[in-house]
Amino acid sequence: MSPKVTQQYKIEIREKIIKAAIDAFSKYGYDRTRMDDVAKTADLSKGTIYLHFKSKEDLFYAICENNLAEAKQQISTMFAKKEDLVSEIERFYDVFRNKKTANEGVFFETIAESSRNAELRKALYKQRMNIFETAVGWVNLQIERGFFRKNIDANAIAVGLVSLYDGLTVNKLLGVSEDYNKKAWVETIRAIIIGIS
Questions:
Q1: 20 plus 78 within the same structural domain
Q2: What is the CATH number of the domain that holds 94?
Q3: What is the model's pLDDT at position 111?
Q4: Is the domain of 40 the same as that of 74?
């Protein structure tokens, strides 16, 4: 009789695979990483990897989804009072930047790879739309709370916030100091909040 596999065990294995994929993508680059590399890094069989993820693109998408879930969790505990918006935006930057450091390079490498890989491009597009949707939801929540004016374009503001963050991530990868990037984030967000309040 084989041992019963619990749901918790499946979740733990999935998380182990995702962590191993981040490590393998960081070490070898997305395009050069094989599922064998992920299996070896996770100390699991290749078959176990494929039980959880049908392809490397699927695995990358799961990494993106984990990052988005973390961001949503963080956002849900912040921004309760209007007067705290700027300090909370600064705290968001610090906390999320510290969590994302390990796989930011991999993310931008996959953007380059997506110009040659249609499946990866589809996964990145879907993920980008999910990020925008989350950001739009946050902007709309601030409108409902009365923190932002009702006549603003929530979609445009949300896309701008995400794009600012992405641009500062590129700066970091290119060697621009994190102090400079954080100051740019805080001052730009402050100006946006003043403009839409």
A1: no
A2: 1.10.357.10
A3: 87
A4: no
- Element spanning 32, H or E: none
Helices assigned H by DSSP within 53-153: 56-76, 85-100, 104-113, 118-144
Given CA atoms 8, 14, 15, 16 in this order, what sign does their dihedral have?
Answer: positive
Residues 82-128 pLDDT 10s: 777 778 888 888 877 776 665 677 777 888 888 998 988 998 999 99
User: Can you read off the two tokens belonging to residue 46?
Assistant: 């290749």
Do 85 and 37 lie in one domain? The reply is no
User: 162 or 82: whose pLDDT is higher?
Assistant: 162
Average pLDDT score over the chain: 88
Determine the structural domain holding residue 184 and report its residue range. Answer: 56-196
Specify whether the CB–CB gap between 86 and 96 falls below 8 A.
no
What is the count of structural domains for the chain? 2
d(CA 61, CA 79): 28
Report helix angle 7-28 to 35-42, nearest 10. 120
> Residues 104, 42: one domain?
no
Q: What residues contact 124, with CB distance under 8 A and at least 6 apart?
A: 64, 110, 111, 114
Determine the Cα–Cα distance for residues 82 and 144; give it in Å rounded to an integer. Answer: 12
Based on the fold, state whether residues 45 and 60 are members of the same structural domain: no
